[in-house]
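[step 3/7] inverse_fold.run input=structure_tokens len=112
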């Protein structure tokens, strides 16, 4: 149960970085932290104590298999998250090239 609580704390740290920081790079890092907290939560949701791999065979019972669906969702989310992170970094670099700063308060004042 404490693992879910630690996952929630990690998510809250990510949300704090997104909402309170003014630097674009720190905001991107906050998004990454929150994303990995959600991925960790999904992986924990499919976990079972003394579980075994979800491979079916005739001589084994289905009783204690780990749920493969959250694992597949997390793998897909990691790939999508990597693409989104690359896009955010590319946009942040373009903003820095245009305005010369990562500070969002200064970018709002420039209106360029």
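[step 3/7] decode complete -> sequence:
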């Amino acid at each position: 149960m404490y693992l879910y609580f630690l996952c929630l704390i990690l998510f809250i740290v990510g949300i704090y970085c997104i909402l309170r920081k003014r630097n674009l790079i720190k905001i991107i890092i906050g998004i990454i932290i929150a994303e990995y907290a959600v991925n960790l939560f999904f992986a924990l949701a499919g976990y079972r104590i003394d579980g075994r791999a979800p491979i079916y065979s005739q001589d084994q019972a289905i009783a204690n298999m780990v749920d493969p669906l959250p694992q597949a969702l997390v793998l897909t989310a990691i790939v999508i998250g990597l693409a989104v992170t690359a896009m955010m970094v590319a946009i942040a670099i373009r903003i820095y090239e245009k305005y010369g700063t990562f500070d969002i308060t200064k970018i709002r004042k420039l209106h360029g």
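[step 4/7] annotate
The CA atoms of residues 103 and 109 lie 10 Å apart.
The chain has one domain: 2-48+66-110.
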